[in-house]
Amino acid sequence: MVALYLALATFTGAFVLVAFLYWRSVQRLKRYSGIANAEAYQAKCEADAQAAVAQREALLTEIAAAAEQLTAYKTRVAQYQQLLGRFQSVAELQQRIERDTARVNQLAQVIGGLEQVAQLNLHLQRLDAGIAQKQAELDSFSHAIGTARSVAEIAARATYYENYLAQLKADVEAVEEAKALQEFGFYRPRYNFDTSEHYQRRLDQVRDQQKRMLSQKTACTCTTEWTVDGSKAEGKKMVDQQIKLMLRAFNGECDAAVSKARYNNVVSLENRLRRSFDQISKLGEAKRIFLSREYLDLKLQELHLAYEYQLKKEEEKEEQRAIRERMREEQKVAKEIEKACEAAEREEAVKARALEQARQELAAREGQNTARLEELVNRLENELREAIERKAKAIARAQLTRSGHVYVLSNIGAFGEGVYKIGMSRRLEPLERVAELGSASVPFPFDVHAMIYSEDAPSLEAELHRRFADRRVNLVNMRREFFRVTLDEIRAAVAECFGHVTFVTVPEAAEYRETLALLKERERPASHLQIA
After folding, report:
1. Which helix (H) or strand (E) holds 451?
2. Residue 222 to residues 237, 252, 283: CA-CA distances in angstroms?
3. Per DSSP, what are the bridge partners of residue 421?
4. What is the distance between the alpha carbons of residues 300 and 210, in angstroms, rounded to a whole number?
5. How far is CA 373 from CA 360, 364, 390, in A?
6. Rounded (5°) CA angle 271-274-275
7. Is 413 exposed, middle or buried (0-12, 13-18, 19+ CB in 10 A)?
8. Mean pLDDT, residues 64-82
9. Which of 34, 251, 270, 398 lies 20 to 30 Å from 49, alpha-carbon distance?
10. Which three-class secondary structure string do you get for 140-159?
């Protein structure tokens, strides 16, 4: 304020000085009688006016600076007033000063133990981390309590979230269990019925028992008689609605579990049904309404039966496919044997006619040089005998329905080293069956290590499969006759079950080895380019 008053006084003085000079100049003009004196006086007045204007501008500059300083003073005064306005008395201000002083002393003690700036920064970082953690906990707590208005509501929400967390943990355990089952095990059947029709009948019985419990209203019961507004009818209506909702929820969970049952999730689905049973039962605790344990057992039986029913149907389909394949194989064998018999009969007839003609010609040339004819007759007799033997073998092969060849094959290009297929074929030419196995379904043809003829080929094959049952590549589908064994082990088993048989120890694998050679040939130009 003092600066403002000083500036105003300076401006007033300047204005009075200009007015005074103007008045004095007017008075002086009256004393000049000539024009020259007037012009000189005018020039002097103009100079004086310019000086006065310059002085005025300087004064205006000083006034502006004084105004800025005054504004700054006003701002600081306002800040002080705002700070002091929180305190109603000097005593309060003094108490605040004392508290701040004590806090400063406390911080000084804490910081005093930190001799280096790095230690101080580390301490501050720990404090910031603690603050962030507390803030996160506070946010989580705020989100958890939501719009709760009382301690009872907060406790209810806490109980709900505890139950929800327990459910999530159970789900995680179920997922881990399903993963473990998928990697290391499988579902173990509980019923082991012979046919799918048996499973279907048992499944129908279980579902009929469920319907009976629903119709008799024993699947879900209420242990208390309720009244609504003093009316038992309204109370019964309320209970019936609650029972209907609980049964609908539980049946929906069960139907979904039955429809999604697979080999790697049956156990987890069973646990899921048990958890659903417990959770839905808790919904009715307040009204003393509970699901029946017997109803839960029926639903679990339905889950197991439905799953095993699907498995049995797949097994039966697989058996039907195997039977059809075996019938086709037997038809091929029968056609081959029939063709062999017909060929042997034709060959026998041709050889018999040729032998008869040779004998007649030999008899006609009696006493002449007949050595050549005798040699021809002997050769034809031997050929006729061999044709008769082939015919007899073909007929015997047709009568021996269990005769055939047990083969040992490998395919290192498709399956690698140490994997062998042990199978059986009843064809007269078993190599045709080997060629069929090496069709477009595998990248390379199979190599034959042994082809063993046996009059009871199925028994020999079954015995070899039994000995290497724990070495199967596929432990689920028994029609996949691949085993992870060594050739020495197979040879020892064959020698013990059948007798000593010659084995080809090193597979030819011609196409596979030629493929490897071509791949190496392709890599050579690239290596030359890199060297260049």
Report:
1. strand 447-454
2. 12, 21, 12
3. 409, 482
4. 11
5. 10, 11, 26
6. 90
7. buried
8. 75
9. 34
10. HHHHHHCCCCCHHHHHHHHH
Cα 246 from Cα 284, distance rounded (Å) = 8
**Beta bridge pairs of residue 419:** 484
Domain ranges of the chain: 2-85, 159-317, 330-399, 404-522
How many other CB atoms are found less than 10 A from the CB of residue 374? 11
Which 3 state secondary structure label does DSSP give 257?
A: helix
Helix (H) or strand (E) holding 419: strand 419-425
Query: What is the per-residue pLDDT for 490?
Result: 94
pLDDT digits (tens, 9 = 90+) for 302-317: 999 888 888 888 877 7
Of the candidates 395, 425, 431, the residue with the CA atom closest to the CA atom of residue 330: 425
Query: By CB neighbour count within 10 A (0-12 exposed, 13-18 middle, 19+ buried), where does 158 fall?
Result: middle
Question: Which phi-psi region, left, alpha or beta, contains residue 138 (left: φ > 0; alpha: ψ -120 to 50)?
Answer: alpha
Task: Spell out the residues 6+ positions from residue 444 whose beta carbon is closer than 8 angstroms to its own.
Answer: 411, 413, 414, 438, 509, 511, 512, 515
Contact, 488 vs 481, CB < 8 A?
no
In single-letter form, the type of residue at position 338 comes to E
Q: Are 507 and 410 in contact (CB under 8 A)?
A: yes
Instruction: Give the pair of three-digit tokens for residue 328.
Output: 């086709």
Mean pLDDT of 484-512: 90
- Phi and psi at residue 14, to the nearest 5°: -65, -40
CA atoms lying within 13 Å on the CB side of residue 399? 6
**Greater pLDDT, 110 or 10:** 10
Strands (E), 214-254: 220-222
Number of residues that this document lists for the chain: 532
Please check whether residue 210 is in contact with residue 324, taking contact to mean a CB–CB distance below 8 angstroms.
no
Residue 349: count of CB within 10 angstroms of its CB:
12
Q: What is the pLDDT of residues 257-286, one digit of tens each?
A: 888 887 677 888 888 899 999 999 888 888
For residue 256, what is the DSSP state? H
* Terminal-residue alpha carbon distance, the chain: 92
Assess whether pLDDT exceeds 60 at residue 82.
Answer: yes
Rounded CA gap, 311 and 295, in Å?
A: 25
* Per-residue pLDDT tens over the stretch 163-206: 667 766 666 655 555 454 444 335 567 777 878 888 888 999 99
Instruction: Decide: 447 and 477 in contact? Cβ < 8 Å.
Output: no
Look at the block and give the residue holding tokens 């006084």. Answer: 9
Confidence (pTM): 0.42
For residue 452, list its beta bridge partners. 406
- Residue 1: which residues within 8 A CB-CB, separation 6 or more? 70
pLDDT at 531 over 50: no
Residue 169 identity: K
The 10s digit of each residue's pLDDT in 367-419 is 555 666 667 767 777 777 777 776 666 665 555 567 788 999 999 999 999 99
Q: List all residues 6 or more positions away from 69 whose beta carbon is below 8 Å from its beta carbon.
A: 3
Is-contact 395 342, C-beta < 8 A?
Answer: no
Q: Which residues contact 504 (CB under 8 A, 6 or more apart)?
A: 447, 448, 449, 450
